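Regression test case RT-17, inverse folding.

Input:
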């Protein structure tokens, strides 16, 4: 493994390699087959999974509708800030083959990049297994005689095929996966508004009645104002599972995106608006459609019966929509699993290219698809088969919890990397060369960095406040909440001890120049498409 990469360019018989990873030779780079609509829907496909449909019901049952809504709004703000940081870095150097750990290695420290890279890969790979397992459960909702292992196999094989064939095929499939899902969600939001207004068969205008009875907030752990705050904080933490790794998906695709300096900022700006619709509005409606004390929200079965959408529509007397909703949730699980496999494979490819993973994972097809890294990431997704047994389902839940904290840690590293990147630009007098700038920087990134750190450290606070049923310490939930932190630190400290790297690179030594000239020259050739009629104008705005 290599301990440091100081912006060096390796040459020889093969193409030039920047930092041993990024090729500046056009014939050896990963193909650019992703368009603006592909990367926008890629990020949304990863953000909108089973968490929106089923996980939201668990939060509603635990703390009530108001904390549910505020928790999602708060996480949207965090995601927006992380997305802005990623967009600024990737539009500055949108080189083919880049990943976020590459930027961490270049702007901060190789040890932090090493730990972050493996943390990312593990989170993505486990999420592939999580979404495949959820898909099998959702298919079983129709009570088919097919064994769950068969459904898991079908889901995993299709995701593998879409990621191996070619980048264009993957992007197009993800676009249509996400399109079907988003159209369905919009339909459900409209249905929810109609129910609230009294347009359902039962003719009952429920409005915000559930906020009065049983109440807007269910105090958590404590009573009074403190209990209300802890209810909000718990919802804030748990809403994170729906968003982890989603902002990174745009950054990871930057190296394979057509016209990145035009399309990455475009995708970043619109990402927040679309999240506001799909999470902000839907979480508000859910808290109105379903009582927080509804017994079916507490069902241990992880299928559409636990979805607040199903409960709310059935309570309103609308029949038949339960199958439509279940199909939409299934599509979201498949779409998210597809996106996570894509991202995890690119992380593993980057680790191998920099000597931090076996070199075999750098192998690509003739068309530039890193098939070895795809297969390596996909193989860990086979853990989905643990969900076939009852004990496997318990282990599966642990993986979900661990992935959430891995996502928080990843965001912390992203913000540290961005702050060092921006400081180096300022120190070297190059801050004005940023092609894309976002509001409130760097102060907003500092604030969110502290906020995410608090979320990570307090995500399992309830184990200290609530004793287990037998009066003892709830060590299982404690491990699920915190085991990822020492695992990450072990990778980081172990790498530092072995390679004796400094705490961080000096600002004067941070390379923010190499590759910039090539990207400037390449991006100058981008010609913004001009719509010829109003239909094209609408399509260019959407896509």
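Golden output:
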């Amino acid at each position: 493994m290599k301990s440091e990469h100081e912006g060096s360019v390796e040459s020889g018989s093969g193409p030039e390699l920047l930092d041993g990873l990024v090729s500046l030779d056009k014939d050896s780079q990963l193909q650019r087959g992703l368009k603006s609509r592909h990367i926008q829907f890629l990020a949304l496909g990863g953000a909108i999974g089973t968490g929106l449909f089923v996980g939201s019901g668990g939060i509603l049952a635990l703390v009530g509708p108001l904390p549910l809504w505020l928790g999602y709004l708060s996480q949207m703000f965090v995601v927006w800030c992380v997305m802005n940081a990623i967009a600024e870095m990737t539009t500055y150097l949108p080189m083919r083959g880049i990943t976020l750990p590459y930027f961490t290695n270049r702007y901060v420290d190789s040890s932090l990049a090493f730990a972050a890279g493996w943390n990312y890969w593990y989170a993505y790979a486990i999420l592939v297994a999580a979404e495949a397992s959820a898909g099998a459960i959702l298919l079983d909702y129709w009570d088919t005689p097919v064994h769950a292992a068969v459904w898991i196999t079908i889901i995993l094989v299709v995701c593998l095929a879409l990621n191996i064939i070619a980048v264009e095929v993957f992007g197009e499939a993800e676009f249509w996966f996400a399109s079907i899902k988003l159209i369905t969600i919009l339909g459900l939001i409209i249905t929810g508004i109609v129910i609230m207004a009294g347009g359902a068969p039962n003719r009952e205008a429920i409005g915000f009645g559930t906020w009065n009875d049983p109440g807007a907030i269910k105090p958590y752990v404590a009573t009074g104002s403190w209990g209300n705050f802890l209810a909000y904080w718990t919802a804030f933490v748990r809403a994170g599972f729906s968003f982890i790794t989603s902002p990174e998906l745009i950054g990871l695709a930057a190296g394979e995106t057509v016209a990145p300096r035009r399309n990455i900022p475009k995708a970043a700006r619109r990402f927040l608006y679309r999240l506001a619709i799909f999470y902000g509005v839907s979480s508000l409606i859910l808290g109105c459609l379903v009582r927080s004390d509804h017994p079916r929200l507490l069902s241990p079965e992880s299928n559409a019966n636990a979805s607040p959408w199903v409960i709310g529509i059935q309570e309103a007397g609308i029949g038949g929509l339960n199958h439509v909703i279940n199909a939409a949730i299934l599509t979201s699980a498949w779409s998210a699993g597809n996106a996570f496999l894509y991202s995890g494979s690119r992380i593993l490819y980057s680790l191998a290219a920099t000597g931090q993973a076996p070199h075999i994972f750098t192998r690509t097809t003739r068309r530039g698809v890193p098939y070895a890294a795809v297969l390596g990431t996909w193989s860990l997704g086979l853990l989905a088969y643990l969900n076939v047994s009852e004990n496997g389902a318990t282990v599966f839940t642990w993986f979900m919890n661990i992935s959430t904290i891995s996502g928080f840690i990843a965001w912390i590293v992203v913000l540290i990397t961005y702050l060092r990147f921006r400081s180096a630009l300022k120190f070297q007098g190059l801050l004005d060369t940023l092609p894309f700038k976002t509001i409130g920087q760097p102060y907003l990134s500092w604030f969110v960095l502290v906020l995410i750190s608090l979320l990570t450290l307090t995500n399992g606070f309830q184990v200290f406040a609530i004793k287990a049923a037998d009066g003892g310490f709830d060590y299982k939930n404690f491990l699920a909440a915190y085991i990822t932190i020492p695992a990450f630190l072990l990778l980081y400290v172990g790498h530092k001890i072995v390679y004796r790297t400094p705490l961080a690179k000096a600002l004067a030594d941070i390379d923010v120049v190499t590759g910039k000239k090539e990207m400037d020259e390449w991006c100058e050739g981008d010609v913004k498409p001009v719509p010829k009629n109003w239909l094209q104008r609408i399509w260019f705005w959407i896509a």
